[in-house]
Specification:
5 helices, globular
Length: 95
């Protein structure tokens, strides 16, 4: 039973990634982060990538705004709360 849940979860992520890849690339997120589900979730939950130390301050202000809009539409249950908060703080401090 657990195997089916894991398979379904992986398929759901792969489908989401297929549908979201172009947007993520256009915002400037490195593909090696979103191609790995664990790294993507870590970024959402902690605001930075644990391997590369990439964070949203590496993005231009317009791309941060686009990413913020994307995150708000994709993660309405608070899954990306930390990353959203970090982007909002960065945007507030930059201007």
């Amino acid at each position: 039973m657990g195997y089916r849940k894991d398979s379904a979860k992986r398929l759901k992520f792969k489908t989401w990634l297929h549908n979201s890849r172009d947007n993520l690339i256009s915002y400037g997120i490195p593909s090696d982060i979103f191609e790995h589900e664990a790294r993507w979730w870590y970024l959402l939950e902690h605001g930075y990538d644990y391997e590369s130390e990439w964070n949203p301050t590496f993005l231009s202000s317009p791309n941060q705004e686009k990413l913020l809009e994307f995150l708000r539409s994709e993660y309405k249950n608070g899954e990306a709360r930390c990353l959203i908060t970090d982007i909002e703080k960065n945007m507030d401090s930059s201007g």
